[in-house]
């Protein structure tokens, strides 16, 4: 049994990024567990003074889930030319714990533009030693025009998502 742990950088109900994660979840076979993390909003603001072996409970839970994952998938929009604060906050709590270190990771930035957040995320994931490859990295711009009524309607986007997901699965086989 393999375990994929995913995080959305958007907390918005009906979020395009959440729709993408639900779509990828629907693609997995029976021998794979695909979790969409629902605790982003419950992670307290990063505090280096609390960043130790006994962190806040929600942070400890997040670190356990990350350490148990065979692969991690992050899907995020861009806000104000950067990474959404809630997602960056989650990532800051993983610097000292090394939760991403050497872990197969995929990054999807799905946004109106998204170039800035995408570039920043690649740097951040590099800093925390996530195992990211060009095949597990995807920028989808104009995302709202590619989804209709909760369905990804753009064929190229569906295809690119399939390629990325299979590349991620290959790394954990
Ligand atoms: C506060 C705010 C700031 C935003 N800033 C950007 C931005 O700088 N670049 C961009 O590509 N999209 C920006 N957007 C648009 C988002 O990309 C768009 O709303 C996207 O659909 C959000 O992802 P979601 O559908 O998963 O919630 C912004 C949206 C909000 C609400």
Automatic annotation (TrEMBL):
Gene Ontology CC annotations of this record: cytosol
Domain of life where this protein originates: Bacteria
Residue ranges annotated for the NADPH-dependent FMN reductase-like domain, each copy included: 4-141
Signal peptide bounds: none
GO molecular function annotation: FMN binding; oxidoreductase activity
Gene3D superfamilies linked: 3.40.50.360
PANTHER family: CHROMATE REDUCTASE, NAD(P)H-DEPENDENT FMN REDUCTASE LOT6
Name of the featured protein: NAD(P)H-dependent oxidoreductase
Organism, as annotated: Mucilaginibacter ginsenosidivorans
Lineage: Bacteria, Pseudomonadati, Bacteroidota, Sphingobacteriia, Sphingobacteriales
């Amino acid at each position: 049994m393999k375990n994929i742990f995913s995080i959305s950088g958007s907390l918005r109900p009906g979020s395009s990024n959440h729709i993408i994660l639900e779509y990828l979840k629907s693609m997995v076979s029976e021998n794979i567990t695909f979790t969409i993390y629902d605790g982003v909003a419950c992670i307290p603001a990063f505090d280096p003074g609390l960043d130790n072996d006994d962190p806040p409970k929600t942070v400890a839970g997040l670190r356990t889930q990350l350490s148990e994952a065979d692969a991690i998938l992050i899907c995020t929009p861009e806000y104000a030319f950067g990474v959404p604060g809630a997602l960056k906050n989650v990532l800051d709590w993983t610097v000292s714990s090394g939760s991403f270190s050497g872990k197969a990771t995929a990054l999807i930035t799905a946004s109106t533009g998204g170039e800035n957040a995408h570039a920043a995320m690649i740097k951040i994931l590099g800093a925390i030693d996530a195992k990211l490859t060009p095949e597990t990295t995807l920028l989808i711009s104009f995302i709202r025009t590619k989804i209709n009524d909760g369905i990804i309607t753009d064929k190229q986007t569906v295809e690119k998502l399939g390629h990325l997901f299979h590349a991620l699965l290959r790394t954990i086989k």
